[in-house]
UniProtKB/TrEMBL annotation:
NCBIfam families: 16S rRNA (cytidine(1402)-2'-O)-methyltransferase. Its main location: cytoplasm. Its EC number is 2.1.1.198. InterPro entries: 4pyrrol_Mease, 4pyrrol_Methylase_sf, 4pyrrole_Mease_sub1, 4pyrrole_Mease_sub2, rRNA_ssu_MeTfrase_I. GO terms for molecular function: rRNA (cytosine-2'-O-)-methyltransferase activity. This is Ribosomal RNA small subunit methyltransferase I. It catalyses: cytidine(1402) in 16S rRNA + S-adenosyl-L-methionine = 2'-O-methylcytidine(1402) in 16S rRNA + S-adenosyl-L-homocysteine + H(+). It comes from the Bacteria. Pfam families: TP_methylase (PF00590). Keywords: Cytoplasm, Methyltransferase, rRNA processing, S-adenosyl-L-methionine, Transferase. It is found in: Cytoplasm.
Length: 280
């Protein structure tokens, strides 16, 4: 897998199920000169479990990423390759690596993603809520005011929202989501790809019914606004404005909106989409 020029491979690793490692990821991790790991001990155990005899490691996490960039670039200047991994899933998805990737591109280093497991996409594929358009919020801010503003800002787009949350803060977060967004469908997706994988679906108005005993890694999906009764023309135009940003064709947008609302056919919504586009 060595390139003719120094390369940073951005490698996705299993969320929990080791069977999700790709053959390409195996080859890259076995062939690079060094692995940049969020937690070198955890990645070392992963490679051992996968029977991959990898190279040495350089620690790269949220607290030292800026300091490590110069060292990593010097490594590339020697003509060597490196693989970037996070603790699980796809690097940069709420994990360190963005600054390094940017610096590598500015430095002329080739950057190649090696796609694979990704918690937000895995949650969307299994929860049964509208998968697109969606906004990924990563880990939410710790302060209540910042979290509330984030919900209110992205809530106006009408898109599904996906974020990570710690079990100790989950109930507080769900209550704040209800206060900020109103009653929407949600899915709590925990222990994705693992033996105890679970999808808990409900409405934010009933969030208190969720057990306090949830364990493991948690990904939360909050669906788009729920319209009660037939949608008004104003509702339709608001949904169209949010959907147009996706860049999809009018017929696709119309069909998607019609599936969410009462009293409107795809043909009727399509007419409103074309009307909106002409007036834009």
């Amino acid at each position: 897998m060595h390139s003719t020029s120094p390369t940073l491979w951005v490698v996705a690793t299993p969320l929990g199920n080791l069977g999700d490692i790709t053959e390409r990821a195996r080859k890259v991790l076995s062939s690079v000169d060094v692995i940049l790991a969020e937690d070198t001990r955890r990645t070392g155990k992963l490679l051992q479990s996968l029977d991959i005899k990898g190279p040495g490691f350089i620690s790269l996490h949220e607290h030292n990423e800026e300091k490590r960039i110069k060292k990593v670039l010097a490594h590339f200047d020697e003509g060597k390759n490196a693989a970037l991994v996070s603790d699980a899933g796809t690097p940069l998805m709420s994990d360190p690596g963005y600054r390094l990737v940017r610096a590598c591109r500015e430095h002329g280093v080739r950057v190649v993603p090696v796609p694979g497991p990704c918690a937000p996409v895995t949650a969307l594929s299994g929860c049964g809520l509208p998968p697109y358009p969606f906004s990924f919020l990563g880990f939410l801010p710790r302060k209540e005011g910042q979290m509330r503003r984030l919900f209110e800002s992205f809530g106006q787009t009408g898109a599904t929202m996906v974020f990570f949350e710690r079990k100790s803060r989950l109930r507080e977060t769900m209550q704040l989501a209800y206060e900020s967004l109103g009653n929407r469908e949600f899915a709590i997706c925990r222990e994705l790809t693992k033996d105890y994988e679970e999808f808990i679906n409900g409405n934010l108005a009933d969030w208190a019914e969720v057990s306090d005993e949830l364990r493991g890694e948690i990904t939360v999906v909050v669906g788009p606004p729920v319209l009660e009764g037939p949608a008004s023309e104003e509702d339709i135009f608001r949904m169209i404005d949010a959907e147009i940003a996706s860049g999809d064709k009018p017929k696709i947008i119309a069909r998607r909106i019609a599936e969410k609302v009462e009293g409107w056919t795809a043909k009727a919504v399509y007419e409103k989409v074309t009307e909106r586009k002409k007036g834009a």
